[in-house]
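Troubleshooting log. The previous structure file for this entry was overwritten by mistake, so regenerating from the original sequence record. Sequence copied from the archived sheet and checked twice against the printout by T.R.
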Amino acid sequence: MKCIVCNSDNREGARFCKACGAKFDLKCPSCGHTYTLVSSFCDECGYHLRSPKDYTPQFLRNKILKTRRSIEGELKMVTVLFADVVNSTAFTESLKADDIHQIMDGAFKILMNEIHKYEGNINQFTGDGIMALFGAPIAHENHAQRACYAALSIQRALKEYRKMLRGNYGIEFEMRMGMDSGRVMVGAIGDDLRMDYTADGHTTILAKRLESIAETGTIMVSENTYCLIKPYFKFKELPPMSLKGIKDKQHAFLLFDVSGLTTRFEKAISKGLTRFVGRKNSMGLLRETWSRAIEGTGQVIEIMGEAGVGKSRLLFEFKESLVAEDVYFFGGRCPPQDASISYLPFRDILKSYFSITEGRSISHITKQLEEKLTSMSKEFSPVMILALQQLLSGEIADETWNHIDHHHKPRKTSHHRY
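Regenerated output below.
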C-alpha cells in the first residue's frame, strides 16, 4: 500500500511507512477510535484530529518551516483551488460505511499527491473535498500556473480511479474544481503548519462559487487567474454569470488542457521575435563545438547568465542555424512547478525519443519502448522495459520489477544490453 505522506510503497498490513515513518493505524486521543491519515474529525466522538503537518510531505514541511519567518505578516498573491466530489450522496446511500470510507480515502490521496507535487498547501478538508492554496505559505511567482497544472493532473489521475470504482462498486465518481487568484495576508504559521491568513476581497468566495456551479468533471477558472496564465493553457470562455454573494457579473473560463508553451521565451516566440543581433562570438563557439561533436568528439556546453540576458534566444538561434542539416533535437526541462519530480529532464528526453505523449496508457508506452529498442538492437532485456516503464509513467505492467530490491535495480539494468 502507498503512504499518502511520501507516496512510498509499503507492504500490506504495515503499521508505519518504511520511508518516512508515518503511522497508518491511528487512534483518536479522545475516545481511542481508529482513524486514517485523511480524517479531519473522529467519526466516533467528533474530536478534531487534523493538522496540516499530518498530511504534508516531509520536503514541504521543511521548506515551510524554514521560510515561514520571512512571509509572516506579508501580503501575498495566491491562487485558491477548491475541489469537490459531485453528488456524493448518490453513492453514500447505497454503499456500506467501510466502502465509502475507502473510496474517499483513495480520492483524498489523489488530491494530496497532485497538489503537493506542485507545492500547493491543503488548507482544509471540506467534507467531500478540499481547499488548497498555491503561493502561500511557500511563495511562488507562478502560483496560478501551479494550480492549473495540479488541477489537470488531478483530472488525469481520476480517470483510472473512476474506472476502478465503476468496476468494483458500480458507481460513477466525479469531481469538479474552481479557482481564483488574489491577495491574502499571511499570519502566524505554527510548528504544526497551521496558517492564519486573511483573504483580500472575495478570492476564497469566488473560487468556491465557481467550483459549486462547475459542471461535472470540469475546472472553472476566474478572470483573475485566466489573465495570469492564459498563454500556457487552453480555455473556453463562458458567458458572464451572476454568482450568489458577489455583486458584479463574473467572467469565467473552462480550463481543459495545456497549450504547449512552458516558458516566457516560448510565449515571446508566439508573439514574434525582434531581429537577432550581436552574439557573434557566442554563436561561433557553439558552431565550433558542434563541428567537433559531429566529428565524433562528444561535447558538453553550459550556458550561464542572469535572467533575461538571452540564453534561450541564443540556443534558439543556434538550433535554427542547423535546420538544413540532418539533426534531431531532444530537449528536457525542469520548470519550477515540477522541481519535485525526479529525473524530469531525462524523462522529457526519453519521451521524445520513444515518441511517447503525455497521458498515454501503460500498454501504449510498453509498445513504443519495445518497437524502438528492437530497432536499436536485436537483444534487449525485459528488465530494461520495466525500468523504463517506471521512469516514464510511474507504473509497472509486470510485478517482477516490484520484487527486485531497489538497491539491486541499477545492477539489474546496467548488466544487460540495450
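Residues 410-418 have pLDDT under 50 and may be disordered. Archived copy saved in two places this time.
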